[in-house]
């Protein structure tokens, strides 16, 4: 069979050349060439940036402007006064607390908050006397109003105390209601358990058999009679 004219005849028993065989197993990648190419690219970028910087010159504005003008004397004095005020405020507060503590230790008047509260500190400061309209405590001479027949007025409850009392009352009511529900639940559970036990006993008797495997008709007849009585 003849091959078509447009095809070259195939050479049988002809291999590839030595050059092609050597190039097939050889890699053409060279790392030194790659690094050199990258270095040239970086150098070109740097040169371009330098030329642009020279062309612009001083037209660019700096990102951070430094303060060229020095502050005036008034501004410096104002800054110093503010710094002194910040330092003196804690010192004055500490000095006031120390003076109040010293007056208390020396037996002077108590701080205003103790005087306004009217607590035990107020009675101690005024020789054991209570507020106006209240009974005298164990003050001068160690006498008590109870011995003289006086009546001691009770201090009214505060808002917080009233709220606490209401909360305690609600809590007690809820606890009592919960106990009642628990008691009813226990009674119902005991009743259901007794009924289930009774039904199990009846079923056991109903399905009871003799030694020969025959059902005991006595209990079945009793059940039928009981059902008839209930229907009547």
UniProtKB/TrEMBL annotation:
Stretches with biased composition (Low complexity): 76-97
Signal peptide: none
Stretches the record annotates as Disordered: 52-183
Pfam families: rRNA_processing
Name listed for the protein in its UniProt record: rRNA-processing protein FYV7
One GO cellular component term noted in the UniProt record for this chain: nucleus
Species: Chlorella vulgaris (Green alga)
Feature: compositional bias, Basic and acidic residues: 54-68, 168-183
């Amino acid at each position: 069979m003849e091959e078509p004219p447009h095809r070259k005849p195939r050479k049988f028993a002809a291999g590839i050349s030595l050059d092609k065989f050597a190039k097939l197993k050889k890699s053409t990648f060279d790392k030194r060439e790659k690094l050199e190419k990258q270095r040239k690219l970086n150098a070109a970028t740097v040169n371009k940036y330098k030329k642009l910087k020279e062309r612009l010159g001083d037209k660019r504005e700096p990102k951070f402007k430094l303060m060229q003008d020095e502050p005036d004397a008034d501004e410096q004095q104002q800054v110093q006064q503010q710094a002194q005020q910040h330092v003196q405020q804690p010192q004055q507060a500490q000095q006031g607390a120390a003076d109040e503590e010293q007056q208390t230790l020396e037996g002077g008047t108590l701080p205003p908050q103790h005087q306004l509260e009217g607590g035990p500190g107020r009675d101690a400061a005024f020789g054991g006397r209570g507020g106006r309209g209240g009974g005298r405590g164990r003050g001068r001479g160690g006498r008590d109003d109870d011995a003289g027949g006086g009546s001691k007025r009770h201090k009214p409850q505060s808002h917080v105390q009233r709220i606490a009392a209401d909360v305690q009352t609600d809590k007690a009511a809820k606890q009592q209601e919960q106990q009642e529900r628990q008691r009813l639940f226990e009674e119902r559970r005991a009743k259901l358990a007794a009924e289930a036990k009774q039904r199990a006993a009846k079923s056991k008797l109903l399905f009871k058999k003799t030694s020969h495997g025959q059902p005991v008709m006595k209990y079945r007849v009793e059940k039928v009679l009981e059902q008839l009585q209930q229907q009547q």
